[in-house]
Structures are given as structure tokens and as C-alpha cells.
Amino acid sequence: MTSRPSPLPRVVVLGGGLAGTLAAAALAPHVGEILILERDSALPQTPAPRARLPQAAHAHTLWAGGADAMEELLPGITADWLAAGAHRIPIPNGMVSFSPAGWYRRSWDPTHYLIGAGRDLIDWAVRRRVLGMPNVELRTRTKITGLAGDGARVRGVYAEQAGQDGRQAAQDGQQAGQDAYGSPGLIEADLVVDATGRNSKSTRWLLDIGGPEVRETVVDAGVRYASRRYRAPEGTETDWPVVHVPADPREARPGLFATIIPIEDGQWHVSLSGTRGGEPSSGEELFEEFARGVRHPLVADLLARAEPVSGVSTYARTANRRRHFERAGLPKGFVVVGDAATSLNPVYGHGMSVAARGALALRGQAARRPFASAGFTSRAQRAMTRPAAAAWLLAVGQDRFYPGAIGRRPNLADRLSARYVHRLAHTATGNAMIVERITDVVTLRKPAGILAGPAVLLAAALGPRKPLLDGPELTAREQEVLARPPLRSPHTASATDTDTDTDTDTDTP
């Protein structure tokens, strides 16, 4: 048994990923001790890949709302990212985006931003700051086997510590087996935070102690990712825009997406994705061919002038999955954060921002009332659900419409909402105020309700103030890159390669 020597509250966080470390940062000012339990044998000391985070091989978007929240939790974290080579990309003028309603203009004044960086770099900078806090401890090679307590209160967790066999298995790149762990031990806590990601076992653990059954909603468009890193063409290593060609959910065909995000080390992180029936291959020679098949070939044209520096990684665990812990009547002393509560189709880039906004909400609740007080758990869970619910609506509002999507089919309200969203996108092609309001919502800086305000409704009724662009609005430097001779000719073979999936994330301690 691990007892608690400090009279101040002790928090146990399950999972040392981004959601877990942000939750630790949020709670650290209000507790005596935070113990982060992680199943990995070690967490990288540099911006290097984690064995249990294969989705890090794919492009990630850290929107302004998420970056703002992380900066508030960890002052100076933005400077850390930039010093390590990340880019602060202004929006809208730093983004070339072909919306379903047309090309967005880039001549408006910047109002928002995003951080262009690899997921490994973002996680590393956060982890380094959090683990440097004097009351935060990390314990690796720890497997959680269940919750301690009952349906009224969680008092800790049962855990098994990996022995020498477990360490050797981890060094060999294998998952440690059941027999590599020691006998179960109780780790006491005043608050347990589940940050174990999509593979969370909390719904089962709660039932095991007589807790509530948690309802789950799933919307799955069958999205599959294929990603690759490229060396940016000479002269484009800095001040390069994000290039994004999304699908149009109104088309009666699988949705195809292509995105370039400038990241550290003078590289582009390129992610291609397709919904069920239009999935990309893992074949390297087919990567750029797929990019040429999206709604506009701009991404493919740029890639033909850049040099790949990695193979192709694929990932297919992309269902939108919402576990309604906020409605379940959780026992005291237990909350769920990040993907363990709401996991989203990553094509919309909201996972990191939702985790950060949720952690900020958790900090607010911890500052108002003790963990043991009546209502802390329910209030904290509801507060963390609000940013997740906003991102959920943005994702499923599109994913429901793709062919073969699993989950409730679109009803009349869904169809009317989708029509209004498309009208807003159409208006945004020529109205700076609507661009700013949409970006407020997409970046999670403001709630979606602002899109129903009187000024927005009037602007949507009037439509765009400027004519539609007939192509992307590119700078002279961007046009010069496209004018260079391509390094490779377009590939014309059919997509018949055998795929190799890497979607094996097992981020559960």
C-alpha cells in the first residue's frame, strides 16, 4: 500500500500523455502531491516518439484556444515551442484553405493563430515543465488494474509494477505481459484522474466497484490517415502557410482530405485521409497520387516539389466516441479527462485543444471547492465537458453525412444545421467578420452560440461581400515554388498496395 504522508490532498493521474500532464499542471497549485502513473517503461527526455502514441506520426493542429489554455496553465510554454523550432502561424492570412464553399481569402488582418509543430515536440515541452514542478512525481512501468472504493467514493487505484521482465520486454519493443507485473497494490488518493485515452477502462472499473453505468455515443465515418514528412523546398523553411483541402460532406462520395502543416526542422508534416470507401494506402508511391484526388490538386503540386524524409504511417482509430461521464453520477474522488471521456476524429484537429480547455476548466473548479466537497466531481466533469461538446458538434455535424458512417443518421435538425454552416462558409469567402466568428469557434476560443447572434444571422442572409475567388490566394514566393520543375512525375498506378497499419495506440497505464 502507498500511503499519503501529506495533510494536503493527493491526486493520482492515470496516464502520462498530454491530457494527463495538463491535468497535473491544472491541479498542482491546489494539492500537496500529484503522482502520475504511466505504463510505458520511460517517457522521452527529448521531442522523440512514444511507443504507445502512434498517432503522433500524423499532423496535429494546436489551435489558438488550446495554445492559449496551455499558456495560462504553463506560462512560457509557447516560447518553449518556438525556441525548439515550432511556428506560430497567423490565421487567416497564414492558411490556404479550400472550404466546401470556396477558397478563403488571406488578405484579412490576422485575428487568431495556430502552433505548427510535431506532436512529439508539443508533448515534450509540456511534460518537461510539468515534471519539473516540485509536487509532481512520475512513476513509469505501472499498470492500473482497477479503482479502489465503492459507488459513493473512489479512494485510490490498484496497480501492478513491472519487474525486470517487464523492463526487458519494453527494451525489446514489446508490450510487457501480465506475468511481468508484481502483485496488486493500493495507491491511495483524494482524487483519481483518468487520462488514459481512447483505451480507457473506466466504464468497466466503475461497474466493478458498484458505480454507475456510463452511456456512450459513437459516430464513425471510417476515416483512415496516411502521413509523411517532407523537407520543405529551399526558401520555404519559415513563414510558410498551412495548406488545407478538406472534403465536402454534401457530396455523395467518400470524403478526402489533404493537409500540409509546417513544423520544426524545416519540414512539412503532411496528412492525407479518407472516409469509409476512400481510405488512403500505405504505399509510398501512392501517397501523392491520393493527394491529387482531393477536391483541388494544390497539396499534390506542392509535394511534387518537396523531398520526402520519412515513410508513410497509417492510422485508423478515428471514431468520434463520447462517454457521458457528466451524466452518470460519478462517485466522489474521480474525474475523466481528454480522450478517455471524448475522443474525436483527428481530421478536425481538436484533440489537444479540448484537453487543454478541459484542464483549464478543472483548475477553475479546484480553485473554488475542495475535492471532497459535495458536488466537486459532478461540477468538474460538467465543466470539462463543455469544450469537448463544442468540438464534438463540429466533428459529428460533418461525419454523419459521409457514406457508410456508423451512428445515428442525420435528422432534419442535422440537415438544417449543416445548411446553415455551409451558408456561413459561403459568406466567409467574402466577409471578414464571419471569418473571425467562424475562427473563434473552430479554434475553441468562443462557444458555437456566437454563430447564432443577430449580426451573424444578418450577414449570412446577405451573403459574401466580395466575389468568389477562382483559385487559391498565393503569395509571390508560393507561386514561385509551384513554378519550379517537379521532382517527381505523377504516379499513375492503381491503389493496390498492401497496407501496413500503425494504429496500435495502447495509452492505458
UniProtKB/TrEMBL annotation:
<feature type="compositionally biased region" description="Acidic residues">
    <location>
        <begin position="498"/>
        <end position="509"/>
    </location>
</feature>
<feature type="region of interest" description="Disordered">
    <location>
        <begin position="163"/>
        <end position="182"/>
    </location>
</feature>
<feature type="region of interest" description="Disordered">
    <location>
        <begin position="468"/>
        <end position="509"/>
    </location>
</feature>
<dbReference type="GO" id="GO:0016491">
    <property type="term" value="F:oxidoreductase activity"/>
</dbReference>
<protein>
    <submittedName>
        <fullName>NAD(P)/FAD-dependent oxidoreductase</fullName>
        <ecNumber>1.-.-.-</ecNumber>
    </submittedName>
</protein>
<keyword id="KW-0560">Oxidoreductase</keyword>
<dbReference type="InterPro" id="IPR036188">
    <property type="entry name" value="FAD/NAD-bd_sf"/>
</dbReference>
